[in-house]
Design brief:
Layout: E1 2-3, H1 7-18, E2 24-26, E3 38-39, E4 49-50, H2 61-67, E5 73-74, H3 84-100, H4 111-118, H5 121-129, H6 132-139, H7 143-150, H8 167-176, E6 186-187, H9 191-204, E7 208-210, E8 215-220, E9 225-229, E10 234-237, E11 240-242, E12 261-267, H10 280-285, E13 288-290, H11 294-305, E14 315-318, H12 320-323, H13 330-335, E15 338-344, H14 356-372, E16 393-396, H15 398-405, E17 440-442, H16 456-468
Parallel strand pairs: 1-2, 1-11, 2-7, 11-17
Antiparallel strand pairs: 3-4, 5-6, 8-9, 9-10, 12-15, 12-16, 13-14, 14-15
């Protein structure tokens, strides 16, 4: 039994079914794919957007090949304005990625073992032993470049550059090591194309998938398990893999907190920039950073920590349809329409816990004002209108993700990211998916080496279950 038909659950289902196991997947919603889905959110408008997750980096090419996925991950072609300092840093991170990424789909190494794999003692110290702020302030003189690098440490993570817990370092690590190169690519056809490919792989191997089947209890004696759904149905299994953010086997409950604002937009055309030296097509094809300097990110963190919507609101945007025009219908393409995806940083769930609707409006207002501060015209004036005349703008706060996807606190990684190595002796050689119950495995983003659209915890949970037999 696999609880949750997000992309990791589908990876596990395909691998186990191919190994000859009888597999049934239970999904609470009426759509599979979890956060890796596409949708046409605007009535009467043929724009198929990646609704939640929108780029892919961590999904290993070897795993895609093993599953027979034919999805294309296309590089983005944005502005190239890198300084010598940034080039040197990125080369270091690429070397790190090439060494660490292959270990993510292998049994866990101990801390010292992974340190030996990394080889570079300076890089190990910068990322694994001291706050990221130390390296950024040493390696970069430019405040904006420090901030651009720091954004990888704050995607969905509420922490400052100097946080002694190193939570920001862990987030940064997963954002720069993807598939051995760290490059974030556009899934052609949208995120739904990835989930559709995984669904086909699972079904073709013989896995059964049941939608609208919400699980409310998992009972196990360590040898046999029973999964109970809210409709009263009961399913027996030898193993249960859980691709959902629920406590398992006596785990201490956590209180995760998401920290992002996601805005999907459809525009009549891309906006003119205040800086005339770059075209909108160049600027928005890659990641367009807005008010994300090192000082501005710290200011935003301080504001949000005090319970205020940050101003200016740091955010970044990119245009999926420039790289992949297939997500737009013929009429939209002919008219010159373009999508725009915005990801706002340091927008923790706590800011929305009171009057959600009012806080959401305030966050959108602050974020659009932030974007307009670097544009040559207001973004709102360029929004496409749906068949009812409403602007094509869709907003998701952490509380929206909590309600729609079952992510506690709207945390896109289910909980705070963990290090990609064993932190206790008994974890060494295991898969990082184990719970205190021998036949119950965690196969979602909350596993060690989880988070992001990667398929890695799904793969690792399948391997752990197969080894257990």
């Amino acid at each position: 039994m696999i609880v949750g038909a997000g992309h990791n659950g589908l990876v596990a289902a395909a691998l186990l079914a191919r190994a000859g196991w009888s597999v049934r997947v239970l999904e609470r919603s009426q759509q599979l794919g979890g956060a890796a889905v596409s949708a046409r959110p605007f009535p009467g408008v043929d724009a198929r957007l990646s609704r939640y997750a929108y780029l892919v980096s961590l999904f290993p090419a070897a795993l895609r090949d093993e599953l027979g996925l034919r999805i294309e991950l296309r590089p983005r072609q944005g502005l190239n304005t890198r300084s010598a300092e940034l080039v040197t840093w990125q080369e270091r991170m690429r070397r790190l990625a090439g060494r660490v990424a292959p270990t993510l789909t292998q049994p866990l190494l101990g801390r010292d073992q992974l340190r030996a794999v990394v080889e570079d003692e300076e890089t190990w110290s910068d990322l694994f032993e001291q706050p990221l702020s130390v390296a950024l302030e040493r390696e970069f003189t430019d405040d904006e470049e420090r901030g651009v690098v720091l954004t990888d440490a704050t995607i969905g993570t509420f922490a400052s550059a100097s946080d002694p817990s190193l939570l920001q370092n862990r987030c940064f690590l997963y954002h720069v090591i993807g598939d051995g190169h760290g490059e974030w690519r556009v899934p052609v056809g949208g995120m739904g194309a990835l989930s559709a490919g995984l669904e086909a792989a699972a079904r073709d191997a013989g896995a059964q998938i049941r939608l609208s089947s919400e699980v409310n209890a998992i009972d196990s004696d360590g040898a046999a398990a029973q999964v109970v759904c809210t409709d009263g149905s009961r399913h027996r299994a030898r193993h249960v893999l859980v691709n959902a953010a629920i406590p398992l086997g006596g785990e201490e409950p956590q209180c995760p907190e998401g920290a992002q604002l996601k805005i999907n937009m459809l525009l009549r055309r891309l906006p003119r920039l205040r800086d005339p030296t770059a075209s909108p097509e160049q600027a928005f094809a890659g990641t367009f950073h807005v008010n994300e300097s090192y000082a501005q990110l710290q200011h935003a963190y301080d504001e949000a920590s005090a319970g205020r919507i940050p101003s200016p609101a740091p955010c970044e945007l990119y245009c999926h349809s420039l790289t992949d025009p297939t997500i737009l219908g013929d009429e939209l393409r002919a008219a010159g329409a373009q999508t725009l995806t915005l990801f706002g940083l340091h927008m923790p769930a706590r800011l929305f816990r009171g009057d959600h609707a009012a806080a959401k409006r305030a966050a959108v207002e602050a974020t659009l004002a932030s974007v307009n501060s670097v544009l040559g015209e207001p973004l709102e004036d360029l929004l496409w209108r749906d068949r009812d005349g409403a602007p094509c703008l869709e907003v998701r706060t952490p509380l929206d993700l909590e309600a729609e996807l079952g992510m506690p606190g709207g945390h896109i990684f289910h909980r705070d990211l963990s290090w990609p190595f064993a932190e206790t002796d008994d974890e060494v050689g295991r898969w990082g998916v184990e719970t205190t119950i021998p036949n119950v495995w965690r196969c979602g983003a909350g596993a060690r080496r989880g988070g992001g659209v990667s398929g890695i915890p799904g793969h690792n949970a399948a391997r752990a279950a197969l080894e257990a037999g």
